[in-house]
Amino acid sequence: MEQAHSLLLNEEACSQLREHQRAEFVFEWLSFLKKLLPATDRADVKKNQKRLVEQLTTVLTGSPGPPTRLLLAQCLALVYRVGDSLTSSLTVDRCNDIIRSKDDSPSFLPTRLAAVACLGVLYEQLGRLLINSFKESVANLLKATKSSEVRVAAHQYKILKGLGVSAVSCHRDIYKAARTCLTDRSMAVRCAAAKCLLELQREAVFLWSTELENVATLCFRAFEGSNYDVRVGISKLLGTLLASALEPRQAIAPRPGSKRNSLKEVMELLSSGFLRGGAGFLRASGDMLKGISSVSRDVRVGITQTCVVFVSILGGAWLETHFSCLLSLLMEWVSHARATQYPADAVSCRCCASFILRATLGTLLGEKAQIAAAKEICQLISKQKRVARVSPADVAASQHVLVCALLELGSLLQDLSSTAAPLLLDTSIGMLDTVISVLLHPSASARLAAAWCLRCVAVGMPAQVAVLLDRCAERLNALKSCPEAVAGYSAAIAALLGAVQLCPLGISHSKGKVVMTLAEDLLRSAAQNSRISIQRTQGGWLLLSALFTLGPTVMEQHLPRLLLLWKCAFPLSVKDVENELRRGDSFTWQVTLEGRAGALCAMKSLVVHCKDLLTDDVISRLQICITFCCPSTLFRLPSIIKSYGNQIKNAATVFRLRVYEILTMLQPKTYEGKQLDWTRSSCAELNLLPSLCYSQDLALLGPGLQDVDQHYIEEQVRSQSNHQGNSRLHGGGSGGGTLEYDPFTIFEKAQEVPTPLPPASALTAAAVQLFGVIFPHLGIQQKAQILEQFCEFVRHLKGARQQTVQIHVAAAFCCTLKCLASSRRELGSEEVQRPALSLLLGALEGSNPLLRCMASEGLSRLVQVLNDPNFTVSITLMSFDKLKTARDAITRTGHALALSAVYRYLSGISSPQYLSACVGVLFTLSQDSTSPEVQMWALHALSMVVDLAGPLYHSHLEASFTLVLRLLLSTPHTHVEVQQSLGRCLNALITSMGPDLQGEGAGVCAVRTSCLVGCAVMQDIQDCLVQAQAISCLQQLHMFAPCFVNLASLVPSLCINLCSSYLSLRRAVVACLRQLAQREAVEVSEHAVALVKELPHVTIKEVGLEGALFSLLDRESDPRLCRDIQETLVHMMSSAAESNLAHWLKLCKDVLSASAGLKIGLKSAAVETQQEEDGDRYDDSSAFHAKSESSGPFNNLRWSTRVFSMECVCRIIAQCENGDLAHFNMALAQEQHYVVLHLADLIRMAFMAATDHSDQLRLAGLQTLLVIIRKFSNVPEPEFPGHVILEQYQANVGAALRPAFHVDAPPNVTAKACQVCSAWIASGVISDLRRVHQLLASSLAKVQVGRDVTSQLYNESTFTMETLAVLKAWAEVYITAVQGSRQRESPGSHLQQQSDEAGTADPAGAGLLKLVQTDLATLSRLWLAALQDHALLTLPSQYSSQLPSTGGSFYTAEMVEQARPHYYSAWATILHATALWLNSTGFIIVDEGPANLSRPVTPTSMGQSTSLSSVKSPEDVNTDRLHLILGISVEFLCSPHSGDQMENISSCLQALQALLEVPWPRSKVGNDQALSVELLSVLHRLIVTRESPSIQLAVLELVRQIVCAAQEHVKEKRHSAEVDDGAAEKETVPEFGEGRDTGGLVPGKSLVFGALELCLCTLVRKLPQLSPKLAGSPTGRGGQTCFLSNTDCRLVTSALAILSELPSICSPEGSVSVLPTVLYLLLGVLREAVKGSVGAESGQLVPGILQALRTVLTSPMSRAEKSRGAWTELLRCALHTLLESWHSDKMEPGVDEVTTLTSLTIFLLYASAEVTTVEPLQTRCIQAFRDSLESKDPVVLSRSYQMLVSLFQGPALVARPFILALGGRLVSQLEEVEKSHPQGPAELQAVQDAIRALEALVFAADETHRPQLVAVLLPILISLLLDENALASAPAASRSLHESALRDLMRIGPQHSTVFKALMASSPHMKARLEAAVKGNQESVNTKAQAPRVISKNTPSIQLKINFL
């Protein structure tokens, strides 16, 4: 294909190809030429133009295929436009000659059509350059059109488009030709004619002026028998004409008597078509005489779409102005007698009017305009209500108006949600009163519509649910005697109960009791008044059915009463049944059947909504009613209907329906033994087909209704086509569903109004489902008999009746097979299989395509159920034989589809032979151009085979690609169904090829090229489904071979189709964009911006593709499409938001600001704040001033879109958090792409959202504010050091929070605001805490008031949610205050230094704590009550009986499950705060006075009950509190699901730490060893399973506290024992502590053993070398360095500290057991630190090791009488180990000798003399010091001398040997200093430390020997002095040493004056040296003293006064 990429066609290469390859080659060349010509130099084009035109003409005359024709025409036009256009007339003449040719052979037709296409594009592109020949061309085209060349009309519009007004002379002729085509039998011709006239009307004024009425009539006729595409095209034409007539785009010359059309005239024109259709006068008159309607539904649906197009073109502003008039005209349609002659017609017309209102009001108007429209509709309802009162005859006319108006009003209010709240408060319209008054309307449909409208109000504004329920219940009680009132208010209450399912906040539990009482009262009083018996019966059961939607928690207590009501509704014996039959009359039977149907519906609702209540006992009771009564009643119904006429026929049908529904839901074993009876009953009702086909096979039936925007009204046409055989006397079919067909659907969980089918149709669907459930449970003989009867019955019928029965029978059996497959049951033996197969094969050859699809699915299910390879092969052979012999399309299509379906549920096709045969047959059928239907089915089957074959299909891929491409290039555009199947087939082939498409082989390249060419062909086809398939194929290609998909051409085509009028195409576009955005989001955005073409509503250039997607998201209502749009935006944001931050934030801000009601909301918020806080320093109203945002690119966006924009803002902030640090650092951020520079915009957006009318947007705004506070609270303000950047926005945050604490704010908004408040206070940003504290204080007051059941608007769990949110917020604030206060009080803390320097109090410290203290008494009680509730709710299910029957402090017993999540989210913070409060009080109970809790809380008052009989002592109260906190903490920390709750784990640990800081709980824990051991085991598990360093440090700190508590306990017991024994201080310690006499430690019961385990775990995880087993060798890791971080060092140090304390809590024998382990670990860690194998952080580790060693050595157990000997031996061993490691490691590089010396020193100083003075340990210790004194390292020398100082000053037994051994060496080293003075600081320090050591030695000597030693010290000091000359030139270290020695001499000399004088007298040289040094020192001091006096001469002459006292 690369040879095709040239300016001229490579004819040589082309001639060598085969025919189908030549067509592909030419198409590829034309595609390349189309892209090349615009970029080619004009001179080059002119140079090759002649040859190029010749080649293009050759292609023209070569019978090109449809796609090639279009490309050829475009290339020809481009050649003349880019090159020389003078010769273009020659080409036009050539085309005209071809069109005029007399050759009518089929082979010449493609050439003629190519000439027509070329003419169209040439005139479109060159326009007036061809003005001279256009008349001839038009004449030829018109003539061709008259000659039935139907595809000519498709190109006429291009001539009109190119010539514009210049073609005015031919407009009339074209119009006449198009008129004929507009009513052609071919749907494609109608579409082309509509397109031509649409282009013609741009210049032909007469179309929308003088000819408007004729064109309208013509369009009405074109609607008749039309398909979806025709209706869309013609509605666009007629809607455009009507809009032009109403508001002309160009001036019209005035004519005598003419006037401008008014809206009423235009609508009357549409009304005539809507009411009378497009029939002529005679036919219409005849129909009127016959009394039937002559308007088909497709005409009305077309006119409906026309009306939508008409209003959409005029725009939202026009609609807002003229809505009142439009509404009244639409209501005239639905109230006209012609439109409502029959119920089905009335339903259809109402659907049309509702669609017009929904499609215009819902998409064209903003929220403000929608509110105005809602007022208009409300006024219309009020007017119609008054009309209905005037005359009963007007009721029939007004009911349909009311239904449409109420349904649209409900939709508006539901969409507006809480934004419409002011509308309900407007007393001028009284909206709720108006709607409620319709509940008394005589018409049932009007009453139900009003009930649904109230439900929509409740869904949109959940606060209204309880209010409306109370109001309706009150009116129902008051008007029980009025039948309309009973029916209306019952429906309203049921609808409101159904709305609760969509309201997260729910309703009060008490409302269920009220409704239950109402329903029971209605049922019990139904027999009292026969006039309203039916209404009361229906109403009562309707209420009960709706009541079940509240869930099992509500219904559990009412179930016994319900069971009794069910029992009363059915006869209890055969005698009762016989009595019924004898005494019944028509009315009695109607009431009876209605009652039993309602009872069965209530059972169904129980099964659907309250499955948890279906115990065996309940099922058995239901079974009695169903299995005894229902069969007897059902079997007698025919005779009853025969006896009493058709009056009870509808009631009987509904009763049957309810029976079938409940039986389908219950398990067949429930009615075991009755299955055959039920099967026979259901078989009699089979007359409707449910959706039992394979989902992908439905594509064969045309575009699915779910894939079009107009599905709501297109269903009307589909329903009519499904009932074509029905008599017009019955209304022409069902007319679609409507609420009055089944009022019991009003409480279903749905956003849109339910549309149940008529009872007869619904009964059939239920019968099919029931048959499928029951049939598998029958016996073999019964199954075979029923299936044979089915086959026989179908065989004996003929015509339409046979088809209908065949459809129903096949549907029932397919449902059976599906149930068998899902339950893995068997069908039966061959006697059952034979009739089953016969039944399906007969359906497979049925004339209905839906039947054939269902039969193929049935065959696949049958094969799956039987799972017999022989049977499967026989089925396939049978289909092969049929396809070989059959010639009719029906048989061939059915069996072709069967071939692809047989292996559908058998894990795909695994036989290559079957695959080859199947592919061969389907290839042959796919090329049967004589039957497009066969082609379509065969290609669809081929795509299924490709999917099922998987990799096995690879051998057929090349041939398949060739076939698909050849068919794409040759299939006419009129056969769109074939092209759609080709698209599906190409998609399947690409998926089968998969990643292999990335290959570089010749075969792969050819296949890839075929894919791209095929996609290009499909993109040029006008059908939307084919274009969607093309996009899907390109998406698949991009997935497998992204580098071969050209985004530069793909993205612009996607953007162009982004606003397509076809839903399926928009879905495909967005799905493709979503995938592209995951990989190349930036490139996609750039290609979209580069697109010059503007899209409707929004310009790509202005807001980018992202803005276009936001606009599309706002307009779309399809959930799947909206989800894809959101995901696309999220992917684009994650890729590009950080790099293009300003653009994305501005986009989100524009979206948020695009609301008509924004200005009002901001202004009112500002005014309110101004009034509240006028004169304050921080005026919240000055935060933002309301400004109009209408200048933005978006207008009137919905609240849901704005909520998503706020979610995007939060995502952007989170994304920036993971990016550059400069995003949150003002000093580093210097450019606009850092988020911190946009903080003002972020705050503004959060404020705008948080103060909006929409509750959902308020929640999103508060969440955004919370994110901003958390992320930016620590960002400093560089211009104002010591301040943070958020401080300037304090007023703004306060203003955003205030509305959420209003008394009318929903609980979820207040709860979120509390979370924001606590975060805001905890951030430490606020300088004035009073404001935010007031908000929290008001919420606390609200909590204390408690829940008032009578005024409860929401579910009780919302009170729990709000209360716990408030308590959690206060807890967070208190925790912050306490922590801040502690940080201030801690000496040397950062906050302390800051406050000392600034002289101000810390805002998060004392000031905040003082504010909280005022409410702490109340808060503490509430916190304890909440914790007790949480403790009860966390009990396992087996302890549920222990829960209080009345509930807890903040939850009710019925709402336990709903309350649990709220407690789970708040308990940890409350626990921490409670522990801190108990810590502050020291567990001292102070009577703070009664706290006003929400309800009397016992036992949650924690011992504070006022009852005298239950008064607890303070000790008991404290014990309860301690155990409560410990129990909650331990339960949570033991939970395996606590892994994700790191914050909660941290809170638990901090709470326990706070408790153990207080003596009383510490003593409790210390006294209870079992509790301590349990705590240690929990903490051990925690430290093993949690890797967080902070958690592990907290665990170790808690273990230390537990060990300290045990220490205190042991010390107290020992002290008590000593006092009791009267013993003074002595060595013998009483034996308390673990180990007792034996020294044994029991695992699981020993605190010491548990602590050892935990510490060992910590140490070994950080230092595996300690465990030879873990390290894999006796030497650990073999010297590998295990780098420890700072945190790791802290963990190790903490573990060692705990280890060192363990011996002290043991008995003497126990300490001996523990000591070896402790010493081993201590010395092991010490050795690793000494060897340097812990990394660079060992310096942080050593002090902790040495401190732990000192603690062990000083343990009292080492001096205890019973353990002293063992301790001495063990410590000697430890010392020996230490010395051995010193000896073995000292030769290794990097060994820390200083640490070893220090540890030896600690041993020598703190161990008893018995340990260290024994030989050879003492000698080895001395030798170690002697070796260290020989070190060349001055640092080691310095530390050695320091250690010697400590030793010389130690006990005499320890010091004496060291003095004797090392004193001489010390003196000799100091004497050598005179010869080599120190050269650096380290050497200087070593000399000074040596002098200190010698001085310590001197003072350690006896008084008698001290003078002799002084006489040695003084000469050494004098020798260090320098003379005056040497001092001046000496280095700094020598001078420092000189000064230090002089100071020592002046200090020591006077102390030993005798020795000093004798020395001076005996050594004149020393004396002179000393005197010179003293004199020099005195001169230096004098010089320094004079220096300040010199400086003082320059001081200022004016002194500032700084003391003002």
TrEMBL record:
Keyword match Transcription regulation: no
One CC-aspect GO term: endocytic vesicle
Protein keywords: Repeat
Segments of skewed composition (Basic and acidic residues): 1178-1188
UniProt keyword Cytoplasm present: no
A GO BP annotation: retrograde transport, endosome to Golgi
InterPro entries linked: ARM-like, ARM-type_fold, Laa1/Sip1/HEATR5, Laa1/Sip1/HEATR5-like_HEAT
Disordered: annotated segments: 1171-1192, 1615-1635
Superkingdom, natural source: Eukaryota
SUPFAM superfamilies in the cross-refs: ARM repeat
Family: Belongs to the HEATR5 family.
Protein name: HEAT repeat-containing protein 5A
The encoding gene: LOC107719533
